[in-house]
Amino acid sequence: MSKETKANTNRAMNTYGAGLEANTLAMLDSTGAKDNRDANEDRLQYLEAVRAASLVPENGIPPTNKMYQAMFRILRFGRTLELVAASFQLLTQLHQRYPWVYISDGKHQLEIVDEAWSPFCFGSDVDSGEKEISVRSSLFQELIQNMNKGVDESEESDLKILGNMFLFKYLVHVLKLDFTPRNQVFEETTNWSLLKESSLNLLLASRKVNFKLLVKDCLSTMCSPFDADGKSISLVELHKGMLSAMKELLIMIIELDASKKKADEEGITNRGDGVRTPAMEIIVDELTYDEYLLSNFLQVFDDPKLKLEIVLQYLIKYIPKPSVRTRRSNTPQTEDLKTLNGILKTFSNGTNAKNITKKIGSVIVQILIGHAFLAQLTISNTNEGDSITEICNSVIAAFTSLKRVDQKIEILPFGKEVLFTAEMVLKAKA
Amino acid sequence: MNMDGPLDFENEDPLVNPPPSAEKRKKVIGLDDLVSEFYKEKSKLIDKGNRKRKASKLYDSDDDERGQQALLSIVDDCRNQMNEICSEEDVQEWGLCMFGDQKAPTQSLIADLDSCHLLKEFMNSQLNSLVELNPDNGTAFLEGLLVNGWLTKLILTCARVETIICKWTLDMLLYSSKEDLRSSACDFWCSILLSQNEVNGAAVEIEWLPNYQILNEALESYGFRISSSQDVQLAEAGSKSQGPPQNIRAWLKFVAACCQIRFKKPIFTASQLEQIAEILVWLLLDRSLQGLSLLLQECVVSVTESFKEEEWVSSFKKIANSLASRVPQDMNCLRVVESVSGVDARSKHLRSSIANQTLVVLLDHKESDEKLMSSLMSINLKEKSCNLFRTYMLLVLAENWLLSSKMVEEKPVLRDMWTVFLRNCFCQINSTDLRPFASKVRTKASYLLQGCRSNGSGQT
């Protein structure tokens, strides 16, 4: 789909927009005297009319902010699944066609549309009409908490649950469309103000958000068991979509943290930017000592780079500090500990393996090594040439070393799968 | 009829005089107000009756008894009339029940894992002393590999997958009753299929690929009611049936992935693709699958995009033809049109074409586009017997036919005829017309007329 960059004939567009706004919104106006079914029918008509005007024609008219607001109102308060799904789809397609933040072709410059509509509202100076519809930080946090309540215990109706999932998915989608280009340009230009004004940053910087709680809620939602049996097909599909949205949210937060750290180091942030514990730290802390959470989280969270980083941060805490061992080695140990291979090598030393296992338990060691290996396989797939065979060898060596140190150590089914995979990759690459 | 003269309502064209936003918007049509006013009047009448009745009760005189009875019967008449008017509802809903009872699959894809090369090779290795893999725990082990994602990564890294593994994983995808198995199997297949499109990464060499037959059999075992050879026999929505198993989700994602690699590895022929496109649209008519509507529409896009250009020119017509001749002639035929998103070029094409073919079927018409439009223009909406629900369908279909494509740009005469039809719909229906769908037809026509004007002025 072609991106409609700066409206070439802005004024003409505005006139059309106003006319379109009046004509389409009139469809919703007359709902007062009607019963529910009629009103729902009108809303569907409205959505179809916006689609026909803004999406179908090659030079479609972008919806006005009021029209967006009306669509979002249907998404938030729609009383049938059909309405909620249709408004979700229409809004996402409109955002793709008419982005409010994008990188201009070839120029590596960020284009931001002035006064573009957003489902979020972080300021306090909003007129009361929009207040009830726009999403504030506190509502977003509440939404995540609702997701965490789980589908089973909730007494709410199916539609309410599905509606909340659609809403959450949509909001994360908006955050991502807003964040990704800003972060990309930040990485090239280190212009912090771009990120500072991103919806994600504004959302998290709000005093109404308990950041730590938010991250924890995400974790426990992602790790809570979900039994698909006996649930509707729609619910199972949306639950999956909700989980992957939550994963995307966490990834964005971690990326924002990283960019903020970079900006801090450059000295371009100020006290107004606030301080918060990086999400990665919170995650690693939460996972520590909780075998169940750890194993489930690593299973669900499949971004290979971040997953590898989480495991490495976890393991590094328990690996003997390099200063003790520098006597015997010429290579700088700290550098080694930044890679999986380096860390795995410390396991081949029997004393190290014994110490680490004693501290964190053989089960967790296996889970950590396994998931780091899984992540590494994904990364190596995309950039060929890395010493994948070397890593396979180190993985096998680490496991055999564990077993050598203590014969009683039970190798988990998961551990066996690790060994199987490492061995078969070696055979294929041989 | 004077086609160029302005109509009275055009003077208040909000495009020319955009209404100030702070003010209450001027409604395009105040019909609803009129209707509600009408009801209000009637209920006032009833209230009056009630009040009179109460008043008469105070006297409790026998003389009033007869008058009271008479009044009561008038009130009753009023009520009945009102109920009659109200029960002729303007709302009809789409929805078909596409799935009957599930059947056992006719044949299993699972072969004996004993001959699985992958497992056998490992059993011979030294490391098996730690893993203790043997023919008895082979299946369980393979399930673990699949669910935890090892199998996918292993196959992507080794860039080759043997027949037994292909069949076993596809069987999990299509028939497993365990969510983690079917969804992991789906991830597995999507990854190895899509690796064919990777520019840099190595494409996985897949020893065995499924065919359309296997997928179709699976769908039939889910209880899907329409096969290509059969005539449509559909239960109305609401009839009790089991519905499809959760595997339908994996089925859809798998089919989409197969389509996405068609240029590299054709799995379906063009005519099979046509059937798949049709199946997807049918699935969009099932309300129990509404949560899948996004997935379904993405699938439709994957399918339409996978036709080669030379196939598409004839295929889109066949899809449209087949759908139009089989879909029930009620709200469902509008839903069929609206379920094709109309965002990309091909889906616009398809949307327009389905609308056109449905018009042809509804009007029993096989001649030129102009003839089709003139039979729309010749509908007399003033006629009491005129079926306005049918007119409403024709209106929406014609809108989609003409406006989803470049039809009106290519044939300006169609645009003029379209405008006439819209004016007929608007002018021949009185704003106080209480026939079912009268208000809908009128409102819709009025809205579309605004569009004609803005388009017209936009191009000059």
UniProtKB/TrEMBL annotation, chain A:
Protein name as annotated: Uncharacterized protein
Organism: Eruca vesicaria subsp. sativa (Garden rocket)
UniProtKB/TrEMBL annotation, chain B:
Domain of life: Eukaryota
Record region (Disordered): 1-24
Protein name per its UniProtKB record: Coiled-coil SMC6 And NSE5 INteracting (CANIN) domain-containing protein
Gene source species: Eruca vesicaria subsp. sativa (Garden rocket)
Lineage: Eukaryota, Viridiplantae, Streptophyta, Embryophyta, Tracheophyta
